[in-house]
């Protein structure tokens, strides 16, 4: 199974949930299963940002998941950048990840 | 998805969707519109005059770090003629404030501005660590808020400035509007949206980021690679504010203009001068000379409570009566040094407020 390599950065206090480490290099599967009714053939789709968010929660996050994920996406107030571009310009959760992408998550919720 | 071009210059690749307008813009245009909007806020409210000495309330966090950067940029670009200072309050919170003060010290170097750090310990004889050790985590935000407000004014007086700018942004102000609505505090509702507050004889305070969205402040810091500190205060139990914040962020996710809309609602409540007149008249504190609406200012009352081991004295009226019933303040009570407003006669330039150049 092929994998894609990503560089992940956390900022604005989010790094505290991820072993207090700002920068991470990870590899995730290039294709991931799509939820299907039981019994039917397993289908796959290219990994997207929504998949990555849950992958990070399940594999990298160390504490207080509710400060990172809420209602199937990042918690409101967490900014996401894809290769230094606002993810709102890149299709948000539907953005399909490519090998070598750099994804940044920044919390805006920590003190001024 | 194909790369989109900037809606403003129609040239460079867009990197940001503006929450206020939905526009997709490039990095250079983003810096320019963000700075220009703050400049417009400043000139429309006539916040400064040439020659003003202005302290930036600096916590090392994102808002005040971006504010210091933008104030320096605008002061040079538009020739405001301001003398800028950094003013930080050290509350004495181990592992929180000591780290953020390191950030402020780096800012001092990076922005080449004089820095004054004033600590609760030197002013009141108590650090927040010591206060929390005595009173617990329940009311500590009350102490910290009262002490910080007075410390900022005293720091400003030491720097001989008569104007403090703070990094409060549009999200902060909208959040405060919501909290005042939920508390039914109509008098405060209008006041909390004013860009500048100044009583008769107090130090002027203003919020140049009043209309700046938090998202853009954080994006600005990110793209400019500004050095800021981000950790929650370890003693912050203000759950009510936390809920208001989460609610606001949910509203913003559904409709980004919600933040500005809420500020406009608050502004619509701004009360008339004659109503204000019925509020308590300002006097000065009998013990420390600071502005106060009672005989003793809030900080002196809190300090007396701490010193006499009856720390809740100023938090409730009943507790204050218990303190009074316990007898007068002892002779050797620790007090706050006498407060004096910056009064050194300075040359008042004849020009009026800083005007826009366009
Ligand atoms: Zn542009
Ligand atoms: Zn006093």
What is the strand content of chain B? 5-15%
- Order of H and E elements of chain A: EEEEHEEEEE
Query: Which cofactor or ligand species appear?
Result: zinc ion
Largest interface: A-B, 25 and 35 residues
Proportion in β-strands of chain A: 35-45%
Which geometry of chain B do the CA atoms define? globular
CATH architecture of chain A: Roll
Name of the CATH homologous superfamily of chain A: Beta-grasp domain
CATH topology of chain A: Ubiquitin-like (UB roll)
Total number of distinct structural domains of chain A: 1
Radius of gyration over C-alpha positions of chain B, nearest whole angstrom? 22 Å
Instruction: Give the terminus-to-terminus CA distance of chain A.
Output: 45 Å
Would you mind describing this structure in some detail?
The complex is a heterodimer of chains A (112) and B (358). Chain A is mainly beta and 112 residues long. Chain A has one domain: Beta-grasp domain (Ubiquitin-like (UB roll), Roll), CATH 3.10.20.30. Helices cover 10% and strands 37% of the residues of chain A. A five-stranded mixed sheet of chain A has the order 2-1-9-7-8, with no helix packed on it. Chain A has a two-stranded antiparallel sheet with strand order 3-4. A two-stranded antiparallel sheet of chain A has the order 5-6. The N and C termini of chain A lie far apart (45 Å). The relative contact order of chain A is 0.27. The mean pLDDT of chain A is 90. Chain B has 358 residues and is of the alpha/beta class. Chain B has a domain at 284-342 and 350-358. Chain B is built from 14 helices and ten strands. Chain B has helices spanning 27-44, 62-77, 97-111, 120-124, 128-135, 140-159, 170-183, 186-191, 214-223, 239-254, 258-268, 273-276, 298-307, 317-325, and strands at 16-17, 24-25, 53-57, 83-90, 115-119, 163-165, 196-197, 204-206, 283-284, 291-292. In chain B, strands 5-4-3-6-8-7 form a six-stranded mixed sheet, with helices on both faces. Chain B has a two-stranded antiparallel sheet with strand order 1-2. In chain B, strand 3 (53-57), helix 2 and strand 4 form a beta-alpha-beta unit. In chain B, helix 7 (170-183) crosses helix 10 and helix 7 crosses helix 11 (258-268). The radius of gyration of chain B is 22 Å and the shape is globular. Classes of the chains: A mainly beta (112), B alpha/beta (358). At the A-B interface, strand 8 and strand 9 of A face strand 1, helix 2, helix 9 and helix 10 of B.
